[in-house]
Amino acid sequence: MSALLPDLPQADPRAAERVLQRLDWQVIRRLDGLLQGDYRTLFYGYGVDFADLREYQPQDDVRYIDWNVTARMDAPYIRQYVEDREITAWFLLDFSPSVDFGTTRQSRLKRSVLIDLVGTLARLLTRHGNRVGAMLYTTQVERMIPARGGRLHTLRLLHELMRQPPLSHAPLTDLAPLLRTALNSIHRRALILIISDFICAPGWERLLGQLNRRHEVIAVRLWDRSERELPEIGPLILEDAETGEQVYVDTRDRAFRAHFAAAIEQHERHLGATFKRAGVDVLSLSTEDDLVHAIAQFAAAREQRRR
Hints:
The chain has 307 residues and is of the alpha/beta class.
């Protein structure tokens, strides 16, 4: 479907300040009430430093197995870590053309949802002394914003996201370079949030599992209702938001609608299986969702799984 170019605010420091003030009043204050000030219910992980190796015990987390030592010793060994109170979080952000999409009157662009979510989580983390950084991806990793703390850094991060220009067309998104960059660049265990609509070419799935073995990974999936529900409005031309390819269709044609529904269902099954296989929790975020309720429900679900 055709991408709609976003109506973004002017990317200047005052615009970033206005966005952060709006998030403070409309989102973060409400979240504080729902989470009772305990933002850590959102995240399992803490910062950790490597301390020692010891032989594997049945109750140990298999993610901490050191496979190189295991191969040499001919017995499983795990890495032990010392917890640090500080969290370092990295946002892996997909700014490919399909993120500039939103259709209904109730919805926003996926890009706008992305910016609000990053601003909210960055503010929650940095005000408690943690650090956040980001990698911005279009057809490649465009920029890396180093992980730092404080309100000024959150403003800088918002400013960088708001001035990221939209792409009209590009090759089909390939998330593998983004995940590979994170694997090669983030050495200390961190919280990693991959924010994307995951409308992309295959080939990134194995890297997701590798990333989650080293870090705590959360996938944030952005979506719009019109990407899943095809309206019956007769003949029209659909345009691929990624590649610009156009195709003529009749939305009242039963065979076409059945094919469309089957393709969506197959894509949903593939994504669900990929996230499950990698052991990654997913925050599904629609352009129509209330951000506060979506984050609070996600935190409650994680807390329930933890018990």
